[in-house]
Amino acid sequence: MLTEQRRRAAFLMVGGAAILASAVLHGMVSVPAAPLWVTAGAYVAFGLVAFAMVSQSVHFLGYALMGVLVAIGAVPARGR
Prior knowledge:
By secondary structure, this protein is mainly α. It has helices spanning about 5-30, 35-55, 60-75. It has three helices and no strands. The protein is flat, with a radius of gyration of 15 Å.
């Protein structure tokens, strides 16, 4: 049976791998905004779930805030 620490470590590794995979996808594919939305969603989901399930540390909320910033950057410029 997995201990609580191993379960948390596995969760953090899977979340980090999802964020890394979406960033690599954005670098390889020439679709302008879709991979950025995937990256933003991965950051927000990982940050909120880690805050709720692992530790109520503001460091995990930082991941969610980074996702919001990436989502703001993914919005196309208007009026140019």
